[in-house]
Amino acid sequence: MTMKTAGIHHITAFVTDAQRNVDFYAGVLGLRLVKKTINFDAPEVYHLYFGNESGSPGTAITFFPWATARRGRIGGGQVGYTGFVVPPGSMEFWQNRLQKLNVPYTQTERFGETYIRFQDWDGLQLEIVEREEGSASEWAFGGVPADKAIKGFGGAVLNSFAPDKTAKLLEQVMGLEKVGEEGELVRFRSYGDLGNVIDMNRTPMGWGAGGAGTVHHIAWRAKDEVDHRKWREHIAQSGFQPTPVVDRQYFNAIYFREEGGILFEIASDTPGFAVDEPFEALGEKLMLPGWLEANRSQVEQGLPPIEVNRLEADV
């Protein structure tokens, strides 16, 4: 069976403080909080989704804010850098914005592209690159106008403790194409126009430690529920052990750990975040799965209040 993913569907990470998480991703980066729900496996913890105006596949970065989470250590078996893409000509805006908001950054180049690298307030490693491809975001918030806004994911840098095996998986199972090598990095590309460029460190890395400031998993796109079932069969036939299909309300999911230690998910593009609230109100109300709705008051009491605010520097 030959299958190819369009690229990254979403990336999920651990952080500590929920309000601080909102302040960074909505306030600093100007992303839209498109869904406020809970971790279906731990209802006492939020699951927050940020993305473009609709949180479309390839744009959504998601978080489990756990107040008592230990600080993680980035290493093998993890996404090392999560990359965002912005329109050409936007880099100076983002450099000035990070400087204004006291977010330290560095500049680096690879494969002919210039990146700025920085961390969120929990230490999650992020980067921004300019590219033509990918639809422009229609969301503007705070000090980030739509014409400078993050389009979605540019890609990710993967840290593997078995890079040869991870590379084989990316090419032969996920359907990405190897397009270049530079220094310690190998570049792969999918056919999509967002979340489509994956760089992998060729040097094996020792295990990282999960916790605040680290990525929990990287999810890859399946077109719909039918395609998603085909992906599960494909992953199993390729020698991996995918979980049963899990209904995450906004997409179906399966999970498996690849041989380089990274937790992979396959997520369906459908039904999307507007399935349970109108587009105009995305992210405004705490949305719960049906089986928890009867306990709404109890769930809400266990969660800290959060709101999307413009930063003082943008008022």
TrEMBL record:
It comes from the Bacteria. Residues 7-131, 152-269 form the VOC domain. InterPro entries: Extradiol_RC_dioxygenase, Glyas_Bleomycin-R_OHBP_Dase, Glyas_Fos-R_dOase_dom, VOC_core. CDD domains: PcpA_C_like. GO terms for molecular function: dioxygenase activity. The keyword Oxidoreductase applies. It comes from Paenibacillus hemerocallicola. This is Ring-cleaving dioxygenase. Keywords: Dioxygenase, Oxidoreductase. The keyword Zinc does not apply.
